[in-house]
Design brief:
- With 250 residues, the protein is an alpha+beta fold.
- Among the domains are: 70 residues, Nucleic acid-binding proteins (OB fold (Dihydrolipoamide Acetyltransferase, E2P), Beta Barrel), CATH 2.40.50.140; 82 residues, Up-down Bundle (de novo design (two linked rop proteins)), CATH 1.20.1440.120.
- Helices cover 36% and strands 23% of the residues.
- The protein has a 5-stranded mixed β-barrel. A 3-stranded antiparallel sheet has the order 9-8-10. Strands 6-7 form a two-stranded antiparallel sheet.
- Helix 2 packs parallel to helix 4.
- The longest helix is centred in the middle third of the chain and has 17 residues.
- It is elongated, with a radius of gyration of 20 Å.
- This is DNA repair protein RecO.
- Belongs to the RecO family.
- Keywords: DNA damage, DNA recombination, DNA repair.
Length: 250
């Protein structure tokens, strides 16, 4: 008899055809994080595919099997789908691709799941007409994801003094140790990995639940790019390429 897990909340991150009539789905669940499954016959059942197996729809899924690739059993709706508009759709697709690329398989991700739901709620409220609307919610989600993966150094901690960052000091990100103070002579150009203490403290406050102020967006983008780059490698993100094809450069 096939092992069957209790129903659990899930979102579909990605789907691809499998054999003649099935799909392979990448799911995000709180208890098992990213997990793959086969939806047998899903491509034959158009109504099921259109109504249930869509991204940004909260689901209750039953998974069967003991291997890494499960079999999808009964699927129920767990609430209304998050209907995203315009550019917000591509923001959602970008985050889905990040999760597929970065999350390990089978590890619980309760905080990531909660952050994902919060992001979808935020994206749903956007008009989708201006790419600028996406900047703050996407940067905050990236930071939360990096934090949960243990890939973001403490944003309020100086690795050199082993104490609190100073708002008026400039710090450089060193991958192995974290943020260390630097002293630039004259008008030396700021490097991409240099941050003002006030920027890091402001971003840290936003990560703890406050708003990400507009004047922090550029620093937050530099920070997440520095941290995500080595994790993603040289393979381009398809969602970014699709966004550029539709809307031009962001």
């Amino acid at each position: 008899m096939s092992f069957q897990q209790p129903p659990q909340p899930a979102y579909i991150l990605h789907s691809r055809p499998f054999r003649d009539s099935s799909l392979i789905l990448e799911l995000l669940t709180p208890e098992h994080g990213r997990i793959g499954c086969v939806a047998r016959g899903a491509r034959r059942d158009k109504q099921r595919r259109q109504q249930a197996l869509q991204p940004f729809s909260p689901l209750l899924v039953t998974l069967m099997g003991r291997g890494e690739l499960k079999t999808l059993g009964p699927v129920e709706s767990a609430g209304s789908a998050y209907w995203l508009r315009g550019r917000a759709v591509y923001g959602g697709l970008y985050v889905n691709e990040l999760l597929v690329r970065l999350l390990p398989v089978g590890e619980s991700q309760y905080q990531v799941f909660a952050a994902y739901q919060e992001l979808l709620q935020g994206l749903k409220a956007l008009t989708g007409e201006d790419a600028g609307e996406l900047l703050a919610p996407l940067r905050l989600f990236e930071l939360k994801l990096l934090n949960e993966l243990g890939s973001c150094p403490p944003l309020d901690y100086c690795a050199a003094s082993q104490g609190q960052l100073e708002s008026g000091t400039v710090y450089r990100l060193q991958r192995e140790t974290g943020f260390v103070p630097i002293y630039r002579a004259g008008e030396d150009a700021q490097r991409a990995d240099d941050f003002h203490g006030r920027e890091l403290l402001g971003i840290n406050s936003a990560l703890r639940g406050g708003p990400l102020a507009p004047d922090l967006l550029a620093a937050a983008k530099r920070l997440t790019a520095l941290l995500l780059g080595p994790m993603l490698g040289d393979k381009p993100l398809q969602s970014r390429e699709l966004f550029r094809q539709v809307y031009g450069k962001k």
